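ok trying again, last paste got cut off:
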Amino acid sequence: MATPGDPRRLCRLVREGRLWALQEELRAAGGCRGLAGDTLLHCAARHGRQGILAYLAEVWGMDIEAANRDYKRPLHEAASMGHYDCVRYLLGRGAAVDCLKKADWTPLMMACTRKNLEVIQDLVEHGANPLLKNKDGWNSFHIASREGDPRVLQYLLTVCPDVWKTESNIRRTPLHTAAMHGCLEAIKVLLNRCQYEPDCRDNCGVTPFMDAIQCGHVNIAKLLLEKHQEGQTSTVQTLLSLGADINSKDERN
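nice, full thing came through this time. structure:
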């Protein structure tokens, strides 16, 4: 027979959403910590068990800011899995919106690895800063560009217009990242709403066009090439215009 309060059993009950059985176990054991440094709050947030999350925080007084071995807090877990109800509950309880886990990831960055716009909006509306960077120099917009949801990119640009002005530690832009991962709709947003140079280079001299070709994303490579040619045509037209203006001034003189 399992010992009351066995961490594996408690985590299983949380994962399965069995609140009544969990209540009985915790009463018998007087509370328990989860596995591998996680609290039961981490487990509840990870699996989207908002009712259990509330029970643990309100009845047992478990700390919503408790960090596991990777410095993840329950808010990181809920955001990373796109569990809106859990995110909203934790924020309503006053969870720190820009808390950092290992490698300096915020809950907003974690949320941007998913495509749940509702979670991202809630975090931003509670003060999450899209401009913060992790240890690799990526901000939330950079991460969202890898996932490629145009709605998320449009939203982040609306609430923080300068969020696109970012490079990683090796000078890779969100345009590089979206091109590498084949995110065509994201590329369209980046080219239309941001002022990236289509042939911008990272520290290794790689351009978004090269990334797209190397990864087999021919449609993206074609779009980037067209944008590059448009830029060249525009430059030539500007130079011709300036030349014509100069000639007309010379004729007047």
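cool. The chain has two domains: 1-99, 130-241. The chain has a mean pLDDT of 88.
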